[in-house]
Amino acid sequence: MGVERKEKKGVSRRTFLASTLAGIAVGGVAGFSVSKLVSPPTPTLPPDIQNIIKERNLQPQHVEAALKTYVPGAQPDEFLMFSSGGHSGQVMVIGVPSMRIYKVIAVFTPEPWQGYGYGDVKTMELLQKASNGMRFLTLGDTHHPEISRTNAEYDGEWLFIGDKLNARKAAISLKDFETKDIIKLPNTQTQHGGACTTPNTEYVACGSQFPAPWEPGRGYKPGKTYIKLTEDNFREYFRGTVTFTRFDRARGKFDLANSFQIEIPPYMQDLEIVGWGPSDGWTFLNSINTELAIGGVLEGKPPLEIAASQKDFDYLHIINWKKAEQVVRQGKAKEINGIKVISLETAIKEGILFFAPEPKSPHGCDITPSGRYVVIGGKLEPLVTIYDVEKIKRAIADQRFQGEDPYGVPILRFEDVKAAQIEVGLGPLHDEFDNLGHGYVSCFISNEVVKYSLGPPDYTGDKPFQVVDRIPIHYNVGHICTTESNSPSPKGRYLVALNKWSVDRFQPPTGPLLPQNFQLIDITGEKMRILYDMPIGLGEPHYAKMISVNKVKPLEVYPVGTDPATFQKHPKYIEGKLGVERKQENGKWVSEVWMTVVRSTITPDIVRVKQGDLVRLYITNIETTKDATHGFGVAEYNVQASIEPGETTTVEFVADHPGVFCFYCVEFCSPLHLEMAGWLEVEPAE
Ligand code: CUK
Ligand code: CUA
Prior knowledge:
This protein is mostly beta strands. It has a domain at 562-683: Cupredoxins -  blue copper proteins (Immunoglobulin-like, Sandwich). The protein has 12 helices and 45 strands. Strands 8, 9, 10, 11, 12, 16 and 17 form a 7-stranded mixed beta sheet that branches. Strands 36, 37, 38, 40 and 43 form a 5-stranded mixed beta sheet that branches. Strands 39-45-44-41-42 form a 5-stranded mixed beta sheet, with no helix packed on it. A hairpin with a 7-residue loop joins β13 and β14. The N and C termini lie far apart (68 Å). The structure holds [4Cu:2S] cluster (CUK) and dinuclear copper ion (CUA). Dinuclear copper ion (CUA) is lined by residues 600, 630, 665, 667-669, 673, 676. This is Sec-dependent nitrous-oxide reductase.
């Protein structure tokens, strides 16, 4: 967009590029001509360009890809992609089509550049709160990002991400790209249903992955609940959950008091999606291990992967969340560990939970733009299975079931709810959609992305539910990501394949631990074309969400004197009192220090405290200039804050080591940045 918008009248840049490309395609690269193609007359490239192409040994498709992805400085990318950072615990912000990383947002792991987890009180509190009853965690495994929605469309205000390893969920403001809240899901050990919002972000929903030991009526408490692991106990006393966490946009906080949870059988629930349009009020999750295997290779049992892959069908979970909300209002849920829980029994009795067969050990659960179809990747079947939400609703209304699972959950008939099955490729995982009624599925085993047509109303052509194109991927593609997919209005244009292996794609290799590979694919034409290979040297990304850049409107600077954690006035700063105040709080000595930072002075630059004091710094950056960030690092104290223009940051640490320690600004901010320093004197205790 950026490139085209700036075109001059007359010979547009686009026309120039088009004729240039035509020249390459028809006339061939320098020294290599396809002489049979004579008409039309071919414009030739300037000799210096031809020389570059020749010297760098490029092919015409490389030149085309370069022209389609290059974004000059100061010009905008078309899309922003928010990618999970996998077990780095963070989120990456990437521009598309340039494929440049703009930022890594600290979420579940301390990150010094953002002053996240190194003394900055609000970030320490987040990590502390996120550990809620567990040991102090500095590790997360982020999988599925989600963007806040208004009328089911992404509105670019909030970003949510789940931590699979510890069943936590984070909310990130896209006003300042900072994490504002993290919660641990009650009664849940691990999660995988990602973070999916209801159409107006009333709730962020999330299913568990591995069931947790669960005491009847008392649920699961980390580090407390113990139930001996046996096959019988697993069936009887382990449970999964689906949690609808209320999100308070104004406060930027999750609100557990107004959230609810549904107890579900101990299958391994997998991906989840919340619907809109015809599927509004419903959420869908797939599952694996309906065999209820627990492994035990050294106890004479088959390994989990074998035992959990016996059945030809697992269960698509179909949940009426609006009915669940009503049932909670009617007082039929019981509070367990801080959240209202609808028991499995109640969920069945009240018509909240249903199953439909899905083949086989599936993965991926996505909804087409119309909201009409739910699409599941077969994983161990070469099929994409497409369910019709209208048929699901009708079958439920008519009470047409084939039977029940061992827990009494009614199972719909596959033939009653299926819209189509499409044979796509081997190991189909995740589906995404474009604006023209096509689905795209990642095939992990056959290393390809396969494009297919949907049915009406998404696709109204005469060849519904058919494969229309395929492209090889390098290699082992997990998720794919198209622009604003899993919403009513995808934008088409690009698809990014989030590949697990890169093998030989990046030369020279960087050791046995190789980067993952994001492949940017042009989906505008009839044939998909690879434009770019992007190494990801930071964790293993799973899913990503991509939205138009103009939907995100971040702040440039904080208004001076506000507290960015809440965007409230910071009352103590307004007093404008600089210096050290030593006082007692609950019998402990606290040295409070009111500080400002501005190019190139830290005031005060000498801070004297006594050994054992809790030092609390209120540091206000009084800059109003964009990008004039100052850092604050204290030598040998593991303290580091990042104070953005206008921001007041509170930093706390215990002055347990006596001595004189330098502190300085860690961002090279001005010619006198090296002089932007001072001293912390910690007077030894007698
Ligand atoms: S999962 Cu990773 S490739 Cu967590 Cu969405 Cu499928
Ligand atoms: Cu402020 Cu360097």
